[in-house]
Amino acid sequence: MENVTVLGAGAAGLAVAAQLKARGVDCVVLERGPGVATSWRGRYDRLRLHTIRSLSGLPGLPIPREYGRWVRRDDLVRYLEAYAEHFGIDVRTGTTVESVKPGADRWSLRLHDGSEHSSRTLVVATGYLHTPVVPAWPGQEAWTGTLVHSAQYRNAEPFRGKNVLVVGPGNSGAEIATDLAEGGAASVSLAIRTPPHIVRRETAGWPAQLNGLLLGRLPERIFNPMAATMARMEMPDLRPYGIDRPAEGLKTRLRTQRYVPLQDVGIVRDVVAGRVRPVGAVQSFTETSVLLADGTSVEPDVVIAATGYGTGLNELFDDPSLFDETGVPLVHGGAAARPGLFFLGYDVTLGGMLRQAAIESRRVARAVPA
């Protein structure tokens, strides 16, 4: 039986494993994929971090300067590989955990090969971007076109010359829409249900991440109008192009929906230029068309659903009281959710995912008994 087991060899899992090791606590890391950073490896080719390199490194090893200010996907994967090697973390790849059950003084994990793995302490760091979610739109089973989740998208080449509808104006959806427009798609539409909060990734060298860190502690009644004013100052009015201004404040959406703003890396330019056409929310499918909430329809060859992810934790644990209605642990980021059970990497902040993972890794490592 292991003393401590960490689930997930992404940034949060590696960070907490390194912090545990620094405190003299041995652990093993179980990873379902063929290597560390599995989720990052599977993201689209043009992806860069939306947080600056100097505020995205994990404890004990900064991201190399030569990776630039906005780190590419492949460079982040290389960094996480180097991080695991630097700290000598025991990562056991190709190990899928199918269920977790509590025991008297241990946690029992059933693995995909039918074997069992027991651990006195279990740290779950599988992330909130774990399981792709596609809405069950009425009629989609009859549609004759192609429907994929954004998790399956790599680059625009397979969609050259095709009419593509991207559903969801989050960071992934907007960046994929821009990638398609630049990559030769015949047409690109972006379906929007709730108008996004759009910010520039940086203004005169000042990154949006620092605004989040400096202003994020302000109460909603101050932060929301301040963010709206800043958006009107730095962004063109997109209402003539089909994107309304958000009705709900940014920090309110962060609190109630775990929402982060859309960082503009080309989508505003492409909407204004007509290369990406905003349309209404998807309502349903017919055999050849997609019906929208405003009563219009489009006839794409391909629909790319940038409709988010679930944690997948409800399928792993049989105790629903651990999680909220979206599958996020009710207790995470430091304190034990149950004796010997910890979750980290499930918080969403304006300061950045990797920075938050670094903070939480220290908290959890201090809370885990030696």
Q: What would your notes on this structure say?
A:
There is one protein chain. The protein has helices spanning 11-22, 38-41, 73-86, 171-182, 208-215, 220-234, 250-257, 267-273, 313-316, 353-367; strands at 2-7, 28-30, 91-92, 97-102, 107-111, 116-124, 131-132, 146-149, 163-167, 187-191, 198-200, 202-203, 206-207, 262-264, 277-279, 282-285, 290-292, 297-298, 302-305, 309-310, 341-343. With 370 residues, it is of the alpha/beta class. It folds into two domains: 2-131 and 309-367, FAD/NAD(P)-binding domain, CATH 3.50.50; 134-305, FAD/NAD(P)-binding domain (3-Layer(bba) Sandwich). The strands form six sheets. Strands 1, 2, 3, 4, 5, 6 and 21 form a seven-stranded mixed β-sheet that branches. Helix 4 links the parallel strand 9 and strand 10 (187-191). Helix 1 (11-22) packs parallel to helix 10 (353-367). The two termini are 15 Å apart. The mean pLDDT is 97.
Describe the SSE topology.
Blueprint: E1 2-7, H1 11-22, E2 28-30, H2 38-41, H3 73-86, E3 91-92, E4 97-102, E5 107-111, E6 116-124, E7 131-132, E8 146-149, E9 163-167, H4 171-182, E10 187-191, E11 198-200, E12 202-203, E13 206-207, H5 208-215, H6 220-234, H7 250-257, E14 262-264, H8 267-273, E15 277-279, E16 282-285, E17 290-292, E18 297-298, E19 302-305, E20 309-310, H9 313-316, E21 341-343, H10 353-367
Parallel strand pairs: 1-2, 1-6, 2-3, 6-21, 8-19, 9-10, 9-19, 10-15, 11-14
Antiparallel strand pairs: 4-5, 5-6, 7-20, 12-13, 16-17, 17-18
GO molecular function, one term: flavin adenine dinucleotide binding
Organism: Actinoplanes digitatis
Keywords: FAD, Flavoprotein, Oxidoreductase
